[in-house]
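I'll show a sample.
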Amino acid sequence: MKPRQIVQSAMRIATGEVLGRIATFFLYAYVSRRYGVEVFGIVALGQTAVNYVIAGADQGLKLIGVRLLARNPELVGYLVPAIGRLRVVSTAAAVSLGLVYGLFGPVPEAARGCIVMFVMTVVPYACALDWVAWGLGHFGILAMWRSGTVILYVGMAVIAMQGSYRPSSVIAAANFLATAFGATFLWLVWRLRLRHLEGKPSLPLVQAAAEQLRVRRVLTLGVSNLLNLIFLNADILLLGAMATTVELGRYSAACKPLYVIFTGFWLMTDVLYPHIASIEESRRARRSLFRWLALLAVGSLVLAALLVWLTPQILTIIYGSTMGADGLFRVLLFALPLDFCFSLLWTVLVSRGYDRFVTFTLAVGAGTNVVLNLIFIPRFQAMAAAWATVAGYAVLLGIMLGFVLKNDVLSRGGKEEVVPLPQEYAL
């Protein structure tokens, strides 16, 4: 894929993402202005909980499917049913655990109905074939699915809230219906447009793909994704259990704009993922990686400084006031350049098959984040969660950068690597 093609693909998917994000921010603004920070916090807790259930349902199958399709598109006819069968079992288990958490877990009573409804959204989501469009490079279809689902979700939620006294549950129900519509759309695209791409892969190719889909390999990447999720938003769950809904709402208000910025960069890594996975062994790519990493670090530092200056205006435009989250947002901005650099390295390593090392790294980072939250949230509340996030990102980037400096990861062609000892990459 040439640089021009990468930019064009990123623009296609960014168009859909921007439309979706505009719609989402409209919902955030509507909820915060009409119902206040407490309801906003309940909805954020439901959204966080469902992300864990999604990770449990997927178990890394999406990334493995994309990786295999990027290298051998003719495998699509084999992978769709194979991955579908594996997802049935993992989705049933993950949804069951999510429902137990929503009904009996350490959450505010007012949030239980919202969490249960959000968890049920995973059932149609697990049936979605977005990974097929992603792996085959159909980013226009991916953008249409993302934006259409979100816009439908927001529209139904706002309309339904007009006649309901339980806004958080109504929002979750709208999310379920929109997700089901999106999954149906992708299946129709598969049946009518993408299925004709089926080829006749050789037996060794199918056997190699089957090896990639073995439970051990899938769980390795699944654990990696789960750890990444724990790192990103375990603080929301811990605040829900150890702090007030007001603190939960303040922290969520600070996180939402930052995650939108992160998502903007993750769109580019989404485009790069199948491209990097298909690269032949090349030592020249290593030099290019470090050049882009340096440029990314400088650019993200400048962006973070600008956002620190504009913090009150940004939060007021979104929520109608700062929601008491301006100090939290400024602290979290320290994580912006760390996330950008880490995300680029994560994309490179996962696309080249370094699943075990990535799992090891995320285990250390997530563990650091959770321990700091458990220690300091009772005393410092939301501010503790913000600083724990920054510290966790510093640990993640330090370990991953040390590994990439010592190993020519782009010249191996994705061979399985040995998990390093912790002392080898200690900060």
